[in-house]
Structure formats: structure tokens, C-alpha cells
Amino acid sequence: MKKKIFITIDTECAGLKDPVYDIGWTIHDKKGEIFAQYHALVREVFTDGEKMVKAYFAKKIFSDYAPMLDAGEISIQNWSTIVDIMRGQIEEFGVNVVAAYNLGFDVRALKMTNDMFGDGSPVFAGKPVQLLDLWQFACEVLLNTATYKKTANANGWVSPVGNIKTSAEMAYRFIINNPEFIEDHTALSDALIETEILAKCFAKKGKVPYGVMNAQPWRIVNEK
Predict the structure, then answer these.
(1) CB distance 24 to 100 below 8 Å
(2) What average pLDDT does the structure give for the chain?
(3) Cα separation, 39 vs 60, whole angstroms
(4) pLDDT digit string, tens, across residues 184-221
(5) What is the rounded distance in angstroms from the CA atom of residue 146 to the CA atom of residue 128?
(6) What distance in Å separates the CA atoms of residue 114 and residue 23, rounded to the nearest whole number?
């Protein structure tokens, strides 16, 4: 059986119907060993003040991104350059699985951005890959347990309507046993924690839900 090599991607958008302004990814195996990582701001979006002023995390322009740019920890790149780098690393490392927490969102955001600023072809053009929604995976093997539900209820990880929360932030709090953890909501940082969540899910040795997206996995954890 061919070894699984993953690219775990996170994207940040100004709104649900807006293109990507921040993208980060890791390339790794199922144990979470990272072979490469990348982080960039999308020039066509990030430098558009009208788009960025309405971004949900707009304050991060000054609190997070400005210091990261000053320190050389992130760069601003044309979208076409970012896609070329991604495709090159997918080829270089033999990536055969694309993963993200709530992958359906990221796939839509990548397509929209590539339609607007790229060549309009699939971002993963020319490379057959499997898709793995880590939200689905986590809800099936990690969060649908008595231990998680007890922990979530004890810490108040419950929505106003009474549903146990199943976000990447909650999953990561659970696996590191730190109820105070707050997700950065910058793309590479989030991709790194999602890489750890993936490794934890694989360690459970359950069935892997390849190809399942947009299936409302939170319902699995909240079935009565």
C-alpha cells in the first residue's frame, strides 16, 4: 500500500463569500512528522483595503501580520506564485491526501480565489489526491466519546442551544488537555494544530472517512 503523505491546509477569508487572504499548510505523514510548511498572504486580497476592513479578524492585520512581516515570518505573494509553490511541493513530496478541518470550506475558498486570480483550473491540477475532512474524522473517532463529552460539558464547550462544540480549537484543547487554549486564526498556526489533530485521529486506528465533506459532523457528537 502506498504511503499516505498529507498536505494539511488552512485558509483565512474576510467573509464566507470572499477569497483567501491568508494561506498556510504543512506537508507530513499520518504520525504528524512535518516535511515542509508554508505561509503567505495573498497580495491581491490582503492589499485591498476595502476587502480587508470587513474581515472577521481584521484586527490581526496590526496585532499579528504586521509583526510577522517585520520578522520575515510571512511574505506577501501573488496568488499564482502561491499555487505554483503548492503544486511544486505536492509533486516534490508525493502528496496524495489533501486535509483540512472543515475541508469543504477550504476547497470552496481555494476554488473561488483561483477562479479570481489564478488560471481557473483546480488548485490540485494534474495530481490525483484523496480528500480528508479532519472535522469529520475528529467527530467520528476522537470527539464522539464519553470522555470528550464529559470534558466539554465540564468546561462549558457547549453552544447556546445546547450542542457540544466540535471546532478545531475544542479538539486541540482536548488532545493537549488545556481548556484555556485559544486558536490564533492565522493560517499556518491553525494548520499546525490541525496536523496534530490528524495524527491523534490516526492513532485511534478507526476507519478513515476519505471523501466525506459537508456532512455536518457535529451531529455525530450530539446524537441523543
Answers:
(1) no
(2) 94
(3) 15
(4) 989 999 999 999 999 999 999 999 999 999 999 999 99
(5) 37
(6) 13
Nearest CA to 135 out of 219, 49, 192 is that of: 219
Grid cell digits, residue 181: 487554549
Predicted model pTM: 0.95
Handedness of CA 212, 218, 220, 221 (dihedral sign): positive
Show the 3-state SS of the chain: CCCCCEEEEEEEECCCCCCEEEEEEEEECCCCCEEEEEEEEEHHHHCCHHHHCCCCCCCHHHHHHHHHHHCCCCEEECHHHHHHHHHHHHHHHCCCEEEECCHHHHHHHHHHHHHHHCCCCCCCCCCCCEEEEHHHHHHHHHHCCHHHHHHHHHHCCECCCCCECCCHHHHHHHHHCCCCCCCCCCHHHHHHHHHHHHHHHHHCCCCCCCCCCCCCCHHHHCCC
| Contact (CB, 8 A) for 74 and 111 | no
CA distance 191 to 101: 9
Domains, the chain = 6-221 (3.30.420.10)
